[in-house]
Amino acid sequence: MKLQWFKHTDNWQDVKNATMNTIGKTTGKYPDEDWKLRLLRSEHSPIRKLEFSWRWEDLPYWVSVHFVRHKIGIEHFVKTQRSDRTGIDRSELSQSALVNHECTANAQALITISRKRLCAAASAQTRQAWQLVKDEVHKCEPALAHCMVRECVYRGFCPEMFPCGYADTAAFQSERAAYCSDKI
After folding, report:
1. Which letter does DSSP use for residue 43 in this model?
2. Residue spans of beta strands (DSSP E) within 36-177
3. Does the pTM exceed 0.85?
4. Which residue among 28, 86, 127, 139 has the highest number of C-beta atoms inside a 10 angstrom radius?
């Protein structure tokens, strides 16, 4: 699996203006990195104006299904397995059949999806696919990538019914401290 492409246009001025509107002002100056991080951490509604698009190529179908379960703030466009479109009997296709999966999502969705898909409870292949997206986000929006963490790091404890034990490790403490830090 690989990312075939990734797109994001810097529209932080729109985000800042929407934020200012919520407090009765009309506009504000382009935000600095500290302001961006604080807004992303607060998860206030204007972060939903930040949009990202990407396309995974050769993603196993069963991994694609993990991502399709996410519905809020994200749209999915997955290569069909319909027999009438492919000429292949769908019942003959394996769950490991490779598909192309395109998405468009806002910053809130990226934060939310990361909590589940970077978790050790997710399959290694799902974590790998999501890490590809996070790596691309980091290149253009490091403050957002800083906020894209697994559930235990986000909450400070593991809420899973069958915890993996990571939240009891020194590595967790280090990752949690980095997440809580103002340093990106």
Report:
1. T
2. 51-60, 74-78, 98-106
3. yes
4. 127
